[in-house]
Amino acid sequence: MLSRLTSRLVTSVICAALAVRIVCGQEPAGQDAVTATPAADAAPRIALLPPIDFNLEQEFFANEPMSDLDPEVAEPKRKRESPYGSSAPFTMGGFWAPEVDVAGQASKLGINAEFARLAVPLGIPVAGEPIWIGIAKFGRLELATDAILPDSGQPIPNQLWLVETGFMHIRPLANGGTLGGTFLFGSASDRPYAAGRDLTLVTIGFYNRPAKNERDEWSYSIFYSPTSQLPYPLPGMAYVWRPSETFEAKIGVPPAVEYRPTEDWTFSVNYFPLVNFNATARRRLSDQLSLLAYYRTDTEIYFLADRAQDNERFYVFDQRAAVGLEQSLARGFALELTASYLFDRKLFQGENFTSGRTDVVQFDPGLGLSLQLLWRR
After folding, report:
1. Which has the closest alpha carbon to 181: 133, 250, 244?
2. Whole-angstrom Cα distance, residue 226 to residue 303?
3. pLDDT tens-digit map of 230-282
4. Closest Cα to residue 65, out of 215, 185, 239, 183?
5. Burial of 167 from C-beta contacts in 10 A (0-12 / 13-18 / 19+)
6. Which residues, in sequence order, are bridge partners of residue 348?
């Protein structure tokens, strides 16, 4: 179940989301306009904002190239008429998985989590001008168990926290391309900000330029985060191929594919090294309701405050298959409810994802429920 902490977050984050609407030129009902720009111009200004997806930094890096919305034009290069697209400058919600048995121990383990993510334009977007966007993220993951880490003999941490703030910058170029990046700074730990070694960051730099046919483009990028599966700088280079308005593929590193055979169906697949994979199918049932299904790997990575080695990380990993519904609400908000089956579930410590694992704890497959409130702008 969602904890009381989520309830306290609702008011503050929704107020922040309303602030985004005011900055973007959209007014809450009954309020006076805060700028001299006519309300009719709000939609083009909002269209200038880039797509934001915070499910995973890696997923964002892999599947949301910044040039999807070029600040020089009012219309996106990719067709995104559906209100059920993946972009959401604001989202908050929670996740719950009931207790299951822990392998090799007479213990059970249950999971609940709350999160909130917000992107706020720092000024009104103007066509052809650079864009600055402030970003804030909060997450709490509870591992409800009395099980221990078998090698160190320490109890499994019950509370894990993620707190990050930062910004995104996008700059249009004379050649039709875009240049920019993202920087997030914060703490991912069982005791956030307890020490300097518990601090983390996410940095993304990118440059996109049109291909010779002016339909496709080249994408160059670099990604780094000490709490990623590959904790060192990862360069990316891909050719974004758009043979039609219904199909797009990023050919290179990281790869991604999106296919929209009709206005009601969308299929997408993306991959980010090392084992971050996401495949999603979405079916619009009506203007207000959408059905979705996905398979993905899910990795949460933290620095434990009492770890023996500075470079040691604590991993929470599973694979999950899910189905759900998304209901469109008023003023661009939507509510998404999904039920998932989680398997290949494990906790462990190590300096990287692939080798030197210690304190491995495996626990049984089980069900999970997720509820999210999103603002699709």
Report:
1. 133
2. 10
3. 777 888 899 999 999 899 999 988 888 999 999 999 999 988 877 788 899 99
4. 239
5. middle
6. 315
